[in-house]
Amino acid sequence: SVRVQIRVNSRELTDILLQEITPNSEHHAALYGLIDRTDKLTGDEYTEQLVGIGLTAEQQDRARQLLSERSLAAVRTEVSSAADITLYLEKMLGMVARNDMVEVVYDPTIVRGLSYYTGMVYECSLLDAKNMGSVGGGGRYDRQIGQFLGRDIPAVGGSFGLDRLIAGLEQLEALPTGVHLAQVALLPLAGCEEDAWNLACELRAAGVSVVNHPGGAAVGQMLGWSSSVAAHAIVVGTDEVAEQQFAVRDLTTRTEETLSVEDIKQYFHDR
User: How far apart are CA 17 and CA 15, in angstroms?
Assistant: First the structure.
């Protein structure tokens, strides 16, 4: 099984911590940017950034302490005004943690760079994939939609990087094998493209998943393509169309069975 980690934070909690570090609101935006880059900076670079923001030595120490603390209970002890939000986060993390395939943790460095987030934010990663980073993330944004409606609308959303996710699963050898885009690929010979399209529409209406080759290629080339997208292939030529009899080729066993359109529907319905 693939082990997944979800790192969770709350913009509401981060706002409270930043206020605890410095009351100067002009520093807060710069600190948000720094938090978002924490894992890309060395210790010395991090210190340089804190100095550049304009924090005093005492404020720098407070920032290092609060923005590296991974225990919500410890945060609650240090910052009394964070009691409610830390208790809420602990409850949410406990609910997600009931799924033993997911490791869920509080991480103060997760802020999601976009400023419209207003509440909980999260990022997901594949624990055992090396040099992969996050494969998805999202959060809550109560004011984004309201910009267009004149009132706040609670909303939550997320996204994932498909290429990165697939690369991670490939690295872990966790992608399923023997899975195809469609049950059957239709391969039209020259002049039979419209006939293949009509057959595809009829098969789809019967619940068969179909993918069409656009035509204009040799049969061997089309068969090579079909093996990557479907479990079966049907060549659609003038003879097949005239007789309404089509050879259904099983691309795994390399066997064929000639069937009528109605029998083709039943053939795939039984699988």
Answer: 5
Secondary structure (3-state) at 252? coil
Residue 16's SS3 state is helix
pLDDT in tens, 69-121: 999 999 999 999 999 999 999 998 988 877 777 899 999 999 987 778 899 99
Contact between 172 and 129 (Cβ < 8 Å): yes
Dihedral, CA of residue 62, residue 65, residue 67 and residue 69, to nearest 10: -150
| Contact present, 238 and 189 (Cβ < 8 Å) | yes
* Whether the Cβ atoms of residue 34 and residue 53 lie closer than 8 Å to each other: yes
Question: Would you say 124 and 135 are in contact if contact means Cβ atoms under 8 Å apart?
Answer: yes
pTM beyond 0.70:
no
Nearest to 238 by CA among 192, 177, 185: 192
Instruction: Give φ, ψ of 37 to 5 degrees.
Output: -105, 10
Edge-to-edge strands, sheet with 134-140: 102-106, 4-10, 120-126, 134-140, 156-160
Helix (H) or strand (E) holding 156: strand 156-160
Q: What tokens does 52 get?
A: 């550049």
